[in-house]
Amino acid sequence: AIxxxxxxxxxxxxxxxxxxxxxxTVIGAETVIHPRVTIGAYTSIGDNCLIRSGVVIEDxxxxxxxxxxxxxxxxxxxxxxxxxxxxxxxxxxQKRDFxxxxxxxxxHKLNSIGNVIINDDVxxxxxxxxxxxxxxxxxxxxxxxxDNLCQIAHNVQIGKDTLIxxxxxIAGSARIGDRVTMAGASGCGDGVEIxxxxxxxxxxxxxxxxxxxxxxxxxxxxxxxxFMRRQRAIARLP
Length: 238
Prior knowledge:
It contains two helices and 32 strands.
């Protein structure tokens, strides 16, 4: 392992072979870090955490206690943020302007300078990516469980005890409440707010806000009862 001299490692922590730990990073008591983990600078990992092989944790990430991160997850990657000098064809179309340009529309990258905060008792599945905030923090609430192959974009805030099932994608600045269930391959759009105890069904796309305690299905997602009425109507068609 390569450990920067300024890093502070609790004597009871375990560091696997070929792991890199950057400057001024803090590792708490009884935390176990498996081989081939990369941890950047000024990152803190609390007590009794388990970080499995291949995980990459970028600079300034805050991981609290009893967090489990499965192999090859990436925490704190740069957000997917770009801007063009002129309005794109998509932006023109949204404004009913069909005077499209056939020239290049160069995307200028906006670097994310925020961080990621992962609270107590969170579990993050293999190959899941959680991007850092553009300016503030991407936050995962206490007790939330995130499955494999999920994407959590920049500035997302997820509440407590929420379940994010495999292949779910959450776009930038979305707000997910407490005890929400987002079933497999579901997703939500930029800035969408999903209320406490809501359920987004499998393969559903929440493109607008979802009220608390509301189960939704479909793409775009609508209330469960309305979705089922439409499906029964379709089944009656010749």
